[in-house]
Design goal:
mainly beta; 1 helix; 279 residues; 52% strand; four-stranded antiparallel sheet; five-stranded mixed sheet
Length: 279
Amino acid sequence: QHPTQTCNLTTATCPQANANGSLSIAPISIELGSGGYNYHIIKPDGLVASNDDLHFAENGYATLDCLPTGIYQIIVTDLVTGCAATASAQLNAPTPTPLAIGNFSVKPTSNTNECDGQLVFDQINGLSFDPAEYSFAWSDCTNCNTPTRTELCPGYYTVTATHLLTGCQGQATAYVHLICTVSPNLISTLGNEVINTIDVYPTTFELAANVKFRLNGDARVTVDVYNLYGMPIKKLLDDELMTMGEHYLEYDASDDPDGVYIYVVNACQETKGDIGIKY
């Protein structure tokens, strides 16, 4: 039994999309296919297939294609002796392999008051595709039949793509980030902190220190250095757009006096800090 997979995106060769399975019968002897045997295969609908309907391969296998699911009765008769053998086989529908949607391109929104984000994907099963061969339904817009979305607010968007010929489906989710300027805190907008961590190392240093921080989303970031009395010493970043992930900065303290310094990261009106000691 060899039911044909329905999600390989190849053109169907059978007249009915739901009747594309195949049934193979192993060789009885080296004379198989030479006219020494007569085949009767009774289909689930009662129709009978015979030798003229089968394909005989060089390895002796007899195959019947374009079959629906169901139970098949097989009768093979030796034309010389009249001896017959019977068997049955059940053809089951395969479990389709979901389509893999990928290669999302995301343009973040500028702030919470503007829904100008963009989202597009251009690969299915790792390959480029023709949008005309699919239908698309989005979680927020079932009538948006396109792989490209514009004018999106920050948030998660799920798309379901369906291949029009095979009915195969795939689903994927992408996130449109928020670029914060003077917008409200990202905590209230996305339910998460924008600044994940900040770490200054080494804790004690002589000439320079490293500032490492991680962002949970894209944001405009300012990084300042203060002394123990709260006086600003140096600005390492000034409202620069930084992407989600980990970032590293170097603080050159060779011209600064020894003492305790406070490093402050500000993004989306959220602030976190750490300290370092120059000796």
